[in-house]
Design goal:
This protein has 122 residues and is an all-alpha fold. It is 62% helix and 0% strand.
């Protein structure tokens, strides 16, 4: 088992979350935007920055286990659910409005045909 000091000293935010870091959603999404998506994917950088800037979205994300709140999982769920991944503000509203479906998707309970009908548009 890894010690807390090992986890906290890790500079890679992806590894920190995987190892169980208690990094807040706000800090995680801002960090991923800067370190993973900047100069690589301006669209995903903007999505992560918008999520990091939403107090309500971050409060919901902070209720999830560290690995479940990871940006790759949340953004993948939103994409699978036909969320507005080309509109940062729209995506934040979509995540909040469809939080139960998002968490089901992240937990692996997503069934496209059944759940797409219950998703509200952003």
């Amino acid at each position: 088992m890894r010690s807390e000091s090992t986890i906290e000293s890790c500079r890679d935010p992806l590894v920190r979350v995987k190892l169980g870091s208690t990094t807040s959603a706000r800090n995680l999404y801002a960090l991923i935007a800067r370190t993973r998506f900047r100069d690589v994917s301006p669209a995903y950088e903007a999505l992560c920055e918008a999520i990091a800037g939403s107090v309500e979205a971050c409060a919901l994300l902070d209720e999830l286990a560290p690995w479940d709140r990871h940006p790759y999982r949340i953004l993948s769920a939103a994409w699978e659910m036909n969320g507005p991944v080309d509109d940062p503000a729209g995506l934040v509203a979509f995540l909040i409005a469809n939080w139960d479906a998002v968490t089901a998707a992240v937990a692996g309970e997503w069934t496209s045909a059944a759940n797409r009908h219950s998703v509200q548009s952003g």
